[in-house]
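Newbie here. two chains, one complex. Structure please?
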Amino acid sequence: MHEFSIAEALATQVLRHAPEGALVRGVEIRVGALRALEPEALKMSWQAVTDGTPLAGADLQVDQRPWTITCSSCGRSWSSPKPFVECTCGNASPTPTGGDELDLVSITVDEEEP
Amino acid sequence: MSGETRTVRLPVVERILEANDDIAAVTRAELGRRGIFAIDLIGAPGSGKTALLEATLRLLAGRRRPAVLVGDLATRRDGDRLARWCERVVQISTGEGCHLEAGQVRDALGRLDLDGVDLLFIENVGNLICPVGFDLGQTAKVGLFSLTEGDDKAAKHPYLVTAADLILLNKIDLEPHLTFDRAGFMADVRLLNPSVPLLEVSAATGAGLDEWIAWLDRGVEATAARRG
């Protein structure tokens, strides 16, 4: 369950970036298709890791990037949640490519007005 | 007016595993400085990672100075098996951890005498998914599959196939007893990673291991050449 390690690393990182005294409301991450991360498992891990910490209750948003499928027969290119799909031209094995990014994208915080 | 709050979205854009990757980069630089070719061996439980390393260490005896790190959840069995063939073996017990992380490898390397070592095997925890995303500072990732796991495992684990510098298909001696579609397995590998070398081996009989040893020798020589 590598989701747990990732949630732990993310919590440390979010605390480092959040301005002092600010309440963290939300965290947005981007996950490449290759990572094979389960957003639900990641959210469960995030809840478990942040429970009882200053990050408790912060909403985790996972932007799961799709695969890009390119057909060498007809040249068509499209996005798909699955890597192995057929092309409408009849080609049974177009080429899947996916990213392996695993990035913190933004933190949403409540700050005191100056 | 003070005391009011406002909600602000702060863009960050940073790798989540940056802390792990930073440690791995230090390890990679240190291994490079020492001229050590380091393999992260990733495969499912029972794919034959330890058996492959046993056979490999036997074949390398007297020719190379290898060291081994073995990740395992709880037992010392793999480490004990490998210690029969290599004096520089460190077992890393990961407890609940389903994969090795860069800090564990760095700490384990600190317990090894690396003087003269030219080849490092890091046997990851048996798992085809979790270990792939954690950089350990290795020179090359090797993905180990086996006939007994079924011919769909490359297709079901695209990250490992894509990230691997070499794919090994183990237990080819069992082919007469199994229905394993080798052509289909290879087609899946090729679709995900058109250029990765793929070797068919049997750690049990030694079939195909000469090509694996030759691949290791080329890696060791290339690493030594980069060191200058």
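Moderator note: The mean pLDDT of chain A is 94. The first strand of chain A starts at residue 23 and ends at 31. Thread marked as resolved.
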